[in-house]
Write a structure and sequence with these properties.
Layout lengths: L21 H11 L2 H8 L6 H11 L1 E4 L13 E3 L2 E3 L3 E3 L12 H12 L3 E3 L7 H5 L5 E5 L5 H13 L5 E4 L9 H5 L11 H10 L6 H9 L6 H10 L4 E6 L2 H9 L4 E4 L13 H12 L5 E3 L6 H10 L3 E4 L1 H7 L2 H22 L5 H4 L3 E4 L12
Parallel strand pairs: 4-11, 5-6, 6-7, 7-8, 8-9, 9-10, 10-11
Antiparallel strand pairs: 1-12, 2-3
The structure holds flavin mononucleotide and 2-OXO-4-methylpentanoic acid.
The site of flavin mononucleotide has 22 residues, from helix 14.
Length: 381
């Protein structure tokens, strides 16, 4: 790891051979990162059953190819929260990206700008949002419901001043998930990633066994967050409000009734509640409940262009990418570009073979859960 580096390109590693898949990039990242940083990034909560289920449920979805549909020039372009995007993907909010590479969020934002996709800036970014805005990337700003409400207000002001196109409130962090790897590793963030009160809090939390990042996180999150606060938030900002971390169809229906501008079906990549369903499993009921009242995005477990097409076929409006971006980030901006180009190539391949000249056609694909070769449930066709 090169966290003390001042940012010269020479410090940025290159993959041993050209990676063909996100899994190849992940293997490379595993060799480059310190073991406890790797564990923090790739790990999940509890026995990691939700983390694994995200993957197996995606892999179990078959897409039935359509033929004779002129796929000579497939287009992956779409619109995400009202902004044109070159692919139906955005980068998910992820904290403290300078943990992975000295250029951190800046490298990711630049890669997003080049790839033409939005970047969601974490409420716990290790790079100030105005610096990220200077890259020209489309930015969405993520919020956590901090007990220090003034900080939420500051984040909103900064987001608006930085030209962000949306605020994404993550609603699945009443406390940090029990991430056993971090607890066993006595995981502590290196100094210099956080600023202000956060830096002080992290330093104070870092002196005892267990996960100091979890200890600190639990002191700053307000578990009293409820629907009244969503109304407050909508009144505080002119930006579209997105709720991230919805899994239950009833919550999705409530979100639509409250007039939120989009939801993200997410289990936080299996990092919060181990025991939650996979997001791809939760998606059909959520879509039914929302009934087109707002876009429904999804994340957690997406590792290939085929996975992205699976979500689009089931009716998602787009996919947020988490860990694949951080795996690429070990190689700085170029590494993130590599991840995005692998995913784009795979998406084009999957679209071509399934007869999708564009993403509207993807929504018409028949999807089948392959296990046991049962007929597709009505909700999935
Ligand atoms: C290292 C790491 C840090 C994360 N930090 C945040 C965060 O600050 N805010 C947030 O809402 N979600 C955070 N997430 C969750 C992601 O936004 C996203 O929901 C999840 O990573 C998607 O799953 P995937 O990694 O399998 O793609 C983080 C995830 C990782 C791996
Ligand atoms: C520091 C954490 C709160 C960031 C996060 O959301 C995560 O690690 O999943």
């Amino acid at each position: 790891m090169t966290t003390t580096d001042t940012g010269t390109p020479a410090a940025t590693p290159s993959p041993p051979q050209t990676p063909l898949t996100v899994d190849d990039i992940a293997q490379w990242a595993a060799t480059e990162l310190e073991p406890e940083v790797w564990d923090f990034v790739c790990g999940g909560a509890g026995d990691e059953s939700t983390l694994q289920l995200n993957r197996t449920d995606l892999a179990n979805i078959r897409l039935v190819p359509r033929v004779l549909r002129d796929v000579a020039h497939p287009s992956t372009h779409t619109t995400l929260l009202g902004t044109p995007a070159a692919m139906p993907v955005a980068v998910a909010p992820m904290a403290y990206q300078r943990l992975i590479h000295p250029h951190g969020e800046l490298a990711v934002a630049r890669a997003c700008k080049r790839a033409g996709i939005p970047f969601t800036v974490s409420a716990l970014t290790s790079t100030p949002i105005d610096q990220l805005a200077a890259t020209g990337a489309t930015l969405w700003a993520q919020l956590y419901w901090f007990t220090d409400r003034a900080r939420v207000g500051e984040l909103l002001t900064q987001a608006e001043q930085a030209g962000c196109r949306a605020v994404v409130l993550s609603v699945d962090m009443p406390r940090m998930g029990r991430r056993l790897r971090d607890i066993r590793n006595d995981f502590t963030l290196p100094a210099g990633l956080a600023s202000g009160a956060d830096a002080a809090g992290l330093a104070a939390a870092g002196t005892r066994p267990g996960s100091s990042i979890a200890r600190h996180t639990d002191t700053i999150m307000d578990a009293q967050l409820n629907w009244d606060d969503i109304e407050w938030l909508s009144r505080q900002t002119v930006l579209p409000v997105v709720l991230k971390g919805i899994l239950d169809a009833r919550d999705a229906a409530l979100a639509a009734e409250f007039g939120v501008d989009a939801i993200v079906v997410s289990n936080h990549g299996g990092r919060q509640f181990d025991g939650a369903p996979s997001t791809i499993g939760a998606l059909p009921a959520v879509l039914d409940a929302v009934a087109d009242r707002c876009p429904v995005l999804i994340d957690s477990g997406f590792r290939s262009g085929l996975d992205i097409l699976r979500a689009m076929a089931l009716g998602a409006g787009g996919v947020l990418l988490g860990r694949p971006i951080l795996y690429g980030l070990v190689g700085g901006e170029r590494g993130v570009e590599l991840t995005l180009s692998v995913l784009r190539e795979e998406l084009l391949d999957a679209m071509t073979h399934t007869g999708c000249a564009d993403l509207r056609a993807a929504a018409d694909l028949a999807s089948v859960i392959s296990e046991g070769l049962l007929p597709a449930p009505a909700a999935l066709t």
